[in-house]
Amino acid sequence: MKKLQTENQNFSGTTVILDESRASGADVGEGSNAPDRTLDSSVLGIDEFLVDKLTQKPPEKYKFRRSIACGGMKVVLEVRDMDTMRNVAMAVMPDAQTRPPADILRFIQEARLTASLEHPNIVPVHDIGMDANGSPYFTMKLLRGRTLAALLTKLETADEEFRKSFPLYRLLRVFLKICSGVDFAHSRGVIHLDLKPENIQLGDFGEVLIMDWGLAKTIKSGDDIIDGLAGDPEKKRSDSGFRPIVTMDGLLKGTPGYMAPEQARGLNSRKDKRTDVYALGAILYALVTHKDPIEKKSVQEMVADTVRGAIIPPRLRAPEKEIPAAIEAVVLKAMSVRPEDRYASVAELREEVNNYLNGYATRAEQASVFRKSLLLILRNKIFAAAAAIILLILGSGVFFAFQEQRRRAEAWLPVCPGSLSALFSEGHQIRFLDRGGGETEKWSVAGGKLAMVPGEWMTLNDPLNHDWRLEILFSSPRAEDVLEIRLDNGLLFRIGANSGVRDQICKINPATGEVLRELTGNISAVPDSYGIRRAVLQREGSKITFRTGDDAREYSCSVDFLPPMPEGNTRFSFHTESEGVLLRNLRLSTRRTAERTTPLIAADALFEVCLYEAALKKYLNIADSYGSQAFCDLALLKAYQIAILYGAHLPGRREKIAEVKKRIAARKNFLYTDLIRETDAAGLWLQRECIPALMIVSSILEKNPKSDILLRLLTVSRNRLSPEAASVLCDLLGRSKWLTSLDVSGLGLTSLEGLRGLKLHYLDCSGNDLESLEPIRDMPLRLLVTDRGIFQGPLEIAEAISTYGSAEIQEGDPAEPDMYLPK
Q1: Is 740 inside any structural domain?
Q2: Which of 256, 321, 487, 661 has the most CB atoms within 10 Å of its CB?
Q3: Using one digit for the tens of pLDDT, what is the confidence trace for 4-43?
Q4: For the chain, what is the domain count?
């Protein structure tokens, strides 16, 4: 939104440059044509070569996409980086030629200072430069989502169902991430000085980024505030293009309601880390009440309330909300008028909130002995209840607990032992491949740790059945490093080396490794001791579970809706592009065959270890040997599935299929006719005979309109279809009126007309050749994925549908005016 700047006189001549949005509703920021008392170039020490330190980029480097916002002295655009082929956010000063030197200095300082703060919860800066018109710019990560302010506004006005999706503990975990970013900045000698919900960006996958470091300052060891780059405050002009200057008392910058009292009084020499602690307390206040700490009034009244400490306690401000007394005490301590009464550091504030989340008393609440005892009981209530039950039924309880523990332990059979040294000494099938897929040298093992070679792959070829569990420990010297684990059924897991680094589950093309789409992401976890990361990947049935760190928060996705899978069982490959990544432990297990009293157990065991020919023969023997129709028919069904879906390399496959079909035809009232037809459709689909497969699907849907056969086919194999097949598929999907989520990405569809009338909440139609999205306009969509991005909410989705095709800038089309882009 557009920002303006006002200048007021307050507190005996103090110059006030404020964000007045809290007072009047207008969003106020930096930059103005009003007189600025810091514009004396001799004081600022700006030389002509300051801008020469910024390199110019060729005009084709960035391609304009759309305007995002403008405020104060900069405009924020979405642009396409033509080198990396990704969309980024660009902040640019469009009218630099008419700006005073102080504004240019402030803009470049913000860019360089932000770039020096590399942390998962601080917006990353990719590039800094200057265009041919002399306008400086910098590019940042483009995050899809909304600000914390927008979320709090919606929480205050939304219905009960939406509010329930953001319980207090979830908001507090967002707050912990904000604290982590600010604490890191403080460790680098940087204070933000403008922390507020508008400057906190929340991503669609849980990302939390601190934005807008335009008012940030660096501090010396003695807490003197200086302008300049983070790091050594005494940098020479030959390094930075300017010399650091001390910020004088009397110049007031910030946002009423979130600025500390010393900031509101213009006492810049007293600003330190505790100034940001106050702002974090104000953000915590807003998180628990969904209101600003100080009610909107005039700027002078809000500043006066801040200086006096006239803060209404959260539980009185929002009596309808269940605000814990412990959190209220933390808020009020962090927002104390005197800096010495606040928390001494952000780390202390973060620890207090963490204590509350973990069931411990906070220092701020000054808990009594009774309160601490009660919390102890609540933290251990499950154990206490279990102990009481065991005391009542001691003998039988101990016995059954032991039996259950033994059953669970025996449920998984180890395939790889865990030790990396044993992995190579026990004859496991391991291959090492270079980027081109060629064999390369074995990686070295030293001290029980496997040193990964950047760009190469290690593949485990031990056969696994459908259920498996992978536990892995690894470490890296850099927080930004990533370990990739690829499955040959089209899944890719990316695990960041440090806390807060974005972890992902992606769907990939198994043949090329190309990432098709992200299934879920931002699995944030705390690393173990010495920066070691732990990850657990597990598949049970159709559910993939991915856990990282000690908090064991799960992100899961469903895959393989139509077992058996295509040819071959699951295999794992490990990869990194970074130097110094060490695998410390790798344990791979597979589900033990369940204890069953069925005659099919022997054949099932052969199938699970990929002995398809032997399994098929065994199923046929069972069909001949047992009189029960249920066992015989099930054995014939499984034999048929093996021949159709797994028999590509079976000798005499055609004869075997004919033999099984003949036996099935001879059975009276065969029990699994519908599953045989689904198997036929799957077999044709795998052979890319899509039209015959879809004809079978059509007959299945006529008999059972609620069948999910189409979704299972799309999971087994996904390829671009012929125009005829794409049209038939779309029409068949339109008959599945029960669908609420649908992924038709990359299928080569040219129209979504067949989907008209579905009540979808989620739709991914990216990677197609669509001319219009009009057929989906009346759907109650909550999330829409197209080639142009991810869209959420009715207004955003409606705009995406209306502008699809016509609004997208194609290569060679006349672009929008790019006067603000580097030339």
Answers
A1: no
A2: 256
A3: 333 333 333 333 334 444 544 333 333 333 333 333 333 3
A4: 1
